[in-house]
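Throughout this chapter, every protein is written as a compact record of paired, labelled lines. An example of such a record is reproduced below:
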Amino acid sequence: MTPLVSRIEPRSEVFRANAAANLAGVAQVAQLLARARAGGGPKYVERHLARGKLLPRQRLDLLLDRDSPLLEIGALAGCHEGGVVPGGSILAGIGRVSGVECLVSASDSTINGGAIGRWGVLRSERLAEVAWENRLPEVHLIESAGADLPNQADIFVPGGAAFRNISRRSEAGLPTVSLVFGSCTAGGAYVPGMSDYTVLVDKQAFLYLAGPPLVKMALGEVIDDEALGGAAMHTRESGVGDFLATDERDAIRLGRAIVGRLGWQRLGPGPTGRADSPLFPASELLGVASADLKVPFDCREVLARVVDGSRFLEFKPLYGSTLVCGWAEIGGYRVGVVGNNGILFSDSAQKGAQFVQLCNQSDTPLLFLQNITGFMVGQAAERAGIIKDGAKLVNAVSNSKVPAITLMIGGSYGAGNYAMMGRSYRPRFLFSWPNHRIAVMGPDQLAGVLDLVKREAAARAGKPVNEAELGMLKQMLAGKVEHESTALHATGRLWDDGVIDPRETRTVLTLALSAIHSAPVGGGNSWGTFRH
C-alpha cells in the first residue's frame, strides 16, 4: 500500500490556532479527569487511608500487570451535571491481568461510601456491554454501600440488570471475579454473591442483605458486623466467599492468580501487520483538527498520523469524493476506514454501502471517522434519490456484522450521525476528540429554522412579527443547543466512551482493536432491502 502524503503546513496560522484551541480542550478534559480521580475529596480520602486501606486506584494499579495501560471507559459519566463527581463512583476500563485482557472496575468508597447512583448504574451497564460484546473476563474490586437510597427511583429498576448480566456471562463461560475490600450491603452483596469467584478480605469485608441496625429494628436481634456478615463466617459457614485473604494485597494476589488460572484463550486473530509507526508525528493532529467546524479538513491527514506506516489503500478514490473509504492497519490489526470529507451525496452514500459490504465479506473490522453535517438537501439532491441512496448506507451500517469503532473528529449532525455508525448503531467503541460537536443541526441553523417558521406563521395569521421576542427566542435556542452539543456534554451522557487527547488516538484505537479481537471477528452477508 502506498503511504499517504501530507499537505498541511504546521507553521501556518490556521494550524497554530487549531492546536491552541484543541490543547485548551484537552486541558479541560484533564481537569475533569483529575476531579474524578480525586474521589470524594481530601477529607474522605484521608479518612479512608486512616483505616489502613488502599485507595481504589491503588488497588487497580496493583491488580493490573506492571506494563499494562488502562483504557478507561466512560470516565466522565455525569460530568455535564453540576455538583456531580464524574465517573459514577467507579474507576473502570480494559487492562491486562496476569496477561489476560479484562474489564476491570473498582468502586470508589471515598464517594458516598461507594454507593451507586444513577450514573454509576448507567456506566455499569455500558461496561457490562463492553465485556459481553468483546468477550472479556470481568474483575470487580468492591467496597460499596449498595444503592444510593435517596435517589432509589433512578436506580432500582435499571440496577437489576447488573445481576442478570453476571448470570448471563457465567452461563456463556465468561467469568466474573469479585475482590471484596469492605462493606457490601443489600444489592451490593449480590455482585460478589453471583460472581464465579469471590475473594473476601478478613476482618474488613462484610456482606449482608441488611446491616446490624436494620436487623435489630426488624428482628430485635443484636449482632455486630463480623458475626452477621464477616469474611471469616462467609468463607467457613455460608459459602459466599471462596477465598479468605489476609489483607488487601493478598486479595489482589489471589485475584491475579485466579485470572492466571482461567486458561483464557482469545478467539479473534492476532495482529498480522508490521505495526510500524506513522510517517508523521501524532502531535500534529492537534493542528489538523479544525477548532471551527465550519472549516473543513481532510480525514486523510488524520489517517496519515494514525495508521501503520501511514499506508492506506483507498477504495474508489475518484468516485463519491466526500466519503473516503479504504484499508489500513492500526497496531498490526486490519481495518476498513470510512471517513467524512464533506457532506454525504448520493454517490458517496452508495460507495460507503458497497465498502461496508466488502469489509463484511473479508471479516475486516470498520473504523468510522465522523465529521459530518448530514446528507445533501435541495431539489437536485431529492430528484437524484438522496433518500434511497442514504438509506442504502444506513441499511449497510445497521446490518454490518464486523466489529466497528467510531471516532468523532469533528461535527456529527442529523442523519449523518446514523449513517456513520453513531452511538445508537452500537459500534463496539466510540471515542471523541475535544472539538467534537453533536446535535440535530448546528445552533445557527436551528435558530434560522425557528426564524423562518415564526415568520411564516405570522404571515399566515396576518400579524406582524415581534422582532424583539423572536430575537430573544433565537438567542436562547442557539445558546441551549451550543451548550448541549459539546463533547463534554456528550461524554457526560455516555454518548461516547471517552473524550481523548488527539495525540493518543493511535494508542486508544490499538487498545480497542486488541479488545475486539478477544472475541471472534466475522462479517455477514444479510441485508435489508436496498431500494434502486
